[in-house]
Amino acid sequence: MSVNKVILIGNVGKDPDVRYLDNHVCVANLTLATTDRGYTAQNGTQVPDRTEWHNLVFWRGLAETVEKYVHKGDKLYIEGNIRNRSYDDQNGMKRYITEIYVDQMEMLTRPQSKPDAPQQPQQAVPQPESGDNGMPF
To answer: 6-107 domain in CATH 3.30.720.120?
Structure first.
């Protein structure tokens, strides 16, 4: 038996790169940063924050959701599996890349309202008349 499962919570490093393949399948790529907070050891040694960058790949409907709603700085929860691949760069050098193929995602950042969207009218809260303390007696 074997398991290849990744769970990450982090911040999107840049807006997603979204492409549609010839067969109209959507694929989105983005980077996600996870940070282990620094600390001061008992002997006074300062250990700085450590940030890891992860390459995420989304396919089909999940990629379309990413295209519409995910932006740089958003916080995401993702589940997926690790895949390694290699390719030859422009100079013919073999390069290796580790990617997370995402199969579950939750957006942890609240969507921002658009500036041109109409504002919801706020209801006025009735204020007690002077001398009225709101008590029924």
So the answer is: no
